[in-house]
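Justification of resources, computational component.

The compute hours requested in this renewal are based largely on the per-chain cost of generating structure records like the one below. Each record pairs the submitted sequence with a full structure-token output. That output is archived, and it is also reused by downstream analysis tasks.
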Amino acid sequence: MMADENVNAEIPIEENGAPDAVDGNEEASDVSSSIQKDEEEGKAEVSSKKKKKKNKSKKKKEAPVQTDPPSIPVIDLFPSGEFPEGEIQQYKDDNLWRATSEEKRELERLEKPKYNSVRQAAEVHRQVRKYIKSIVKPGMLMTDLCETLENAVRKLISEDGLHAGIAFPTGCSLNWVAAHWTPNSGDKTVLQYDDVMKLDFGTHIDGYIVDCAFTVAFNPMFDPLLQASRDATNTGIKEAGIDVRLCDIGAAIQEVMESYEVEINGKTFQVKSIRNLNGHSIGQYQIHAGKSVPIVKGGEQTKMEEGEFYAIETFASTGKGYVREDLECSHYMKNFDVGHIPLRLPRAKQLLATINKNFSTLAFCRRYLDRLGETKYLMALKNLCDSGIVQPYPPLCDIKGSYVSQFEHTILLRPTCKEVISRGDDY
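The structure output for this chain reads:
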């Protein structure tokens, strides 16, 4: 047939008459391997492109790095939404079994959202204090220092009304003033080289508060005073635990605190614990939840309980070791358990509405009212204080000319262990 003849004609014939089958197979094999090679290269190219796409998508998901000064909300630095836990300390003696108890672990799993909220607040605190430590120096106006710190908190915590924000005014008490001082508007106080400043500020998420403080002193002669309160606070944290009596913690703190001496301008002082200042339990939207942690022996025998938050804070003084209220008041807080109290002054009613909306039972200061646009409110504020709705918290002072240092951490008595929520690399 014509078709057969055409096929045969295309096949070369060797001298012996046999078709060149080997060469034909080799040529077909070459074509086949070439096609296979192209396919493999094509697959490799596609695979490479996929990997590049995956790498690109991974890069997109990488968390940003905090800026200097800090401006990126902490929530954006942890895309998983999980925030780092604080320092873990095991309970002592009779409570060691808790670390391996499956029942207690299950209790913690149920509380995970609460833990995560307070850890977010703690991470904000760590990043803000790191920044403030890098910029604080003699010659700064105290108002500028506080507003710089508070604006950083607002950015990093993604301030959201009563859901997230500042937990109480920035305390920046100087020298013999131990606590509760922040500048009112117009105050021209300037930080000096020989000042001892207690920087005490709080952050919160959904009312879960981190209360944490440290002391700044530029003159190294104050170092032993700072070390006394730092060590005393760490001792209080170490001694704290479920079923521990509060009085026992106070005795341990005082023993460590008063083992220190400090020489200031050629005169030696025995460091004292301020006997009428305490640490305290913390509740949701409640900075002082009812229990006090003394820093001297002889306190109450009430016990700490599982699930409680505590601010462990100590105050070291070169003065009498006793504070009194003095100076112009700046701190205020609505009473936590106050019921409805009728008010006659319309301006007082209006101011109370502002307080309820913006602070509820969290502490505030006059600068915060100024920032909200409130003016000529002092009479109304006094009326709220006189009626018992709002409590004023004037500065607490030892004797003039003395020096006070403070360190403070927030701890959580978890079912299985003790977590120092606010612990950082700095202290």
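The CA atoms of residues 281 and 310 lie 4 Å apart. The chain is about 35% helix and 20% strand.
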